[in-house]
């Protein structure tokens, strides 16, 4: 694969283009918002504008409700030899493509399971898809060569291909992506009416719960309404659980509440770690950061000198801005050594 057209230069489209550029592929960036395409091009994601002739693959990085219309437009003008998309809903767009008489042989649905709470080309990252599942949903009519192009795209972007039926995909993402985003938004919406004194008490737990609520409201309206049936089915179960919680809180016996909290423990434990990796036990090492320039960089350098493999870094800021807390997630076996060495170097580390 040498040439690609990326239609839509938001977070995902620009990230795809950046990843492909790094692997020697030439992306042509197409967007109805010319400024967005030019911004992506300025970031090194490719060339703004349509290609002079058919490209090897067109990646449709548009909302689910727009996939069928955009595919129809570009299949008619012969943009590419093969087409895929990155939308987070697969069934309804595929039905609309068929209803419009689209060429399903040259199309395969795709959905990289990666993203950020920010949107737009400036939020794009070439490494966004590294090690992340990338679902492909081929139709029976999809030509093998087209599926091969999509698999090559996933490989070039560093993703891990997963082939699913469209219905299985849509129910899965409703459970692990769409409803969690909706719940984060609903919690964040409660804060809009919250008293200032309450918000000043907010800690990292609230930030973790509401982080993804910063996503683009228009895009998420499209996603949720396109996958409405699957999302509503998950919400039905949640509504029943909420009724259980309200009944337990207002009743004499908290047993039902305890049982639900234990189910939450069990569900959380089922979330896998690194895709394709083996299960590893991690332990947080919490380090106080003073309010001065370069403090986090100095901490990471110190941890690196110890040889600690840092799986994740989380930051919690003090409300008065005088200090903060960095939580370094490291393999259980190295947590003690890292803690002792950081303390020896003068860092304040909490057990």
Automatic annotation (TrEMBL):
UniProt key word Signal: yes
Presence of the UniProt keyword Signal in the record: yes
InterPro entries tied to this protein: 6-PGluconate_DH-like_C_sf (IPR008927), NAD(P)-bd_dom_sf (IPR036291), PDH_C (IPR046825), PDH_N (IPR046826), Preph/Arog_dehydrog (IPR050812), Prephen_DH (IPR003099)
Source species of the chain: Streptomyces siderophoricus
Domain Prephenate/arogenate dehydrogenase: 2-279
Protein name: Prephenate dehydrogenase
Region forming the signal peptide: 1-19
Keywords of this entry: Oxidoreductase, Signal
PROSITE patterns: PDH_ADH
E.C. code: 1.3.1.12
NCBIfam families attached to this UniProt entry: PRK06545.2-1, PRK06545.2-3, PRK06545.2-4
Family: Belongs to the prephenate/arogenate dehydrogenase family.
GO terms for MF: prephenate dehydrogenase (NAD+) activity
């Amino acid at each position: 694969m040498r040439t690609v057209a990326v239609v839509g230069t938001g977070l995902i489209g620009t990230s795809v283009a950046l990843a492909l550029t790094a692997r020697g592929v030439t992306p042509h960036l197409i967007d109805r918002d010319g400024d967005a395409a030019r911004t992506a091009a300025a970031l090194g994601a490719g060339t703004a504008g349509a290609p002079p002739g058919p490209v090897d693959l067109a990646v449709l990085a548009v909302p689910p409700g727009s996939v069928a219309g955009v595919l129809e437009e570009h299949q008619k003008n012969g943009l590419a030899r093969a087409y895929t998309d990155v939308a987070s809903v697969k069934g309804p767009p595929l039905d609309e493509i068929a209803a419009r008489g689209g060429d399903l042989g040259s199309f395969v649905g795709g959905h990289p399971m990666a993203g950020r709470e920010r949107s737009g080309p400036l939020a794009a990252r070439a490494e966004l898809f590294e090690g992340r599942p990338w679902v492909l949903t081929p139709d029976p009519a999809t030509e093998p060569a087209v599926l091969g192009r999509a698999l090559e795209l996933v490989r070039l972007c560093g993703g891990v291909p997963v082939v699913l039926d469209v219905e299985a995909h849509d129910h899965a993402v409703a459970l692990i992506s769409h409803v969690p985003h909706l719940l984060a938004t609903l919690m964040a919406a409660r804060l809009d009416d919250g008293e200032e004194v309450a918000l000043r008490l907010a800690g990292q737990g609230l930030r973790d719960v509401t982080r993804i609520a910063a996503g683009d409201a228009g895009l998420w309206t499209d996603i949720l309404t396109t996958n409405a049936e699957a999302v509503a089915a998950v919400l039905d179960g949640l509504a029943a659980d909420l009724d259980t919680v309200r009944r337990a809180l207002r009743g004499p016996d908290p047993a039902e509440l305890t049982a639900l909290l234990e189910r939450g423990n069990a569900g959380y434990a089922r979330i896998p770690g690194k895709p394709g990796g083996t299960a590893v036990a991690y332990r947080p090492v919490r380090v106080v950061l003073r309010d001065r320039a370069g403090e986090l960089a100095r901490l990471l350098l110190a941890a690196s000198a110890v040889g600690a493999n840092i799986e994740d870094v989380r930051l919690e800021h003090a409300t008065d801005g005088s200090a903060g807390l960095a939580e370094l997630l490291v393999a259980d076996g190295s947590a003690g050594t890292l803690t002792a060495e950081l303390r020896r170097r003068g860092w304040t580390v909490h057990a």
